[in-house]
Specification:
The complex is a heterodimer of chains A (about 150) and B (about 325). Chain A is of the alpha/beta class. Chain A has helices at about 15-20, 25-30, 40-55, 65-75, 90-105, 115-120, 135-145, and strands at about 35, 55-60, 80-85, 105-110, 130. Chain A has seven helices and five strands; from the N terminus they run ααβαβαβαβαβα.
Chain lengths: ~150, ~325
Amino acid sequence: MHIPYHFSSDPNETGRQRAASLSGQQPSTALHRVLIVEDEIFIQLDLERELNAAGFTVVGITDNADDAVRLAAKENPDVVLMDVRLRGTRDGVDAALEIWEKLAIRSIFISGNIDQALMARAAPAEPLGFVHKPFVGSHVVALLKAPDGRG
Amino acid sequence: MNAVLALLESDTRATILVRSDRFVIGLNRAARDLFPHLDANADLAVDPYQRAAIDAYLRRCAATRGPIPGALPLSANGGGTWHLDGGLLAPASEEAPAIVVLRVRPRAEGRREFAALTQKIEELNRDLHTRRRLQSNLEESVRNQEVLLQEVHHRVKNNLQVVSSMLSLALGARDPRMALSQAVDRVRAIAAVHELLYAQPRFTHMDGAALLRAVTAGLSEMYGRHQIAIEVADTTIDIPAEHTTALALIVTELVTNAYKHAFDDAGAGIIRIALTKNGTTATLLVGDDGVPFPATRQGTGLRIVDAFVRKLGGTLEVVSNPKHICVAFPVER
């Protein structure tokens, strides 16, 4: 896995270790604590229930990019479930890029409009996967359990 | 020469007979009209400084019978040059210099022909300009349509996701039957708003009273609790289009909450709804005459209401006496 050079000077050692471990062989144990970033309440509730039922811990839920960065720094999740369209001026890609650069936490993007442009923008955040809307919770759960099999 | 002049007299083209030494022999009527200062025996050169140029032209004309185009200042007091064709009428003899005939090109007519051409070119330019503008408008319109289509496509998928999530939530609920009927309420509320918005002439705003009527009508049908009346206070406020779905879902959740928790199964009662505006703040009040709110606020219903209040950029207040919930949100004046 590629780690951006400017990241080598980042003092957040745990983040680097986690980023390194993600490229290792035990993704299912690595992704347990999840931050949900989604601006539709019903999708939030659904994701939260699905994840709880599958044994994950939802460490926070927010509907905007700034709170996503703040919550990620505070809760130190293993992964962020990141909707692309969010409340406010910055979108999910902006948030994911900042979370990756500052905290080395990777995101799984959720969007109704996953195209080349989006994937190119998101690429520097080293996304763990992309989920198309409409999805069912089990897709997301499967991806969290096996992020390397990026379907 | 008099015979020649007689022949030319009624020609509409101004004609001058002149000797190669600039001595004017005669003019026809059209020429006399144009150059009243010239007559027989006059010097063709009005301006002494033009003599050399006129001499040179006349010499050239005298050398050939073919017409020589030229431009001479023939008017008194300036007046510009006149275009003409000059040709030899009688060659020089021992007694007399050559005689040249000058046929003046009609100025006004020339201007008219040129003006017509200019006008045509201007018309073509205008036409081209219009077509270019039209084309760029069309191209922009096509781009806008493509963006709009993308947006609609995106929203449809997102809304399908919302519905899918609602159903998924209901499946996992403790009382799936109740949860499903709530999911139906929500979908119907969204559909009612959508229907209203696109059935009216303007898409930017919606009549608040119509919105409340449409949403509550669907709810009372669903629950069939006819002994519980819904009173919607008269309102004249307009709701911006982007707020209508959130408002409809807030009303749906609050009224459903009242149906579910405020009255016992056989109980009668009134749910009151009001929508008012004060300056740039709109206020939604939903109250009932049933049992008081529980001491602690919890439950998915209120979380949903909170989320939509947040979408409106508003605030929510729970008031115990008289029992109601107040949602205030900003709208333009």
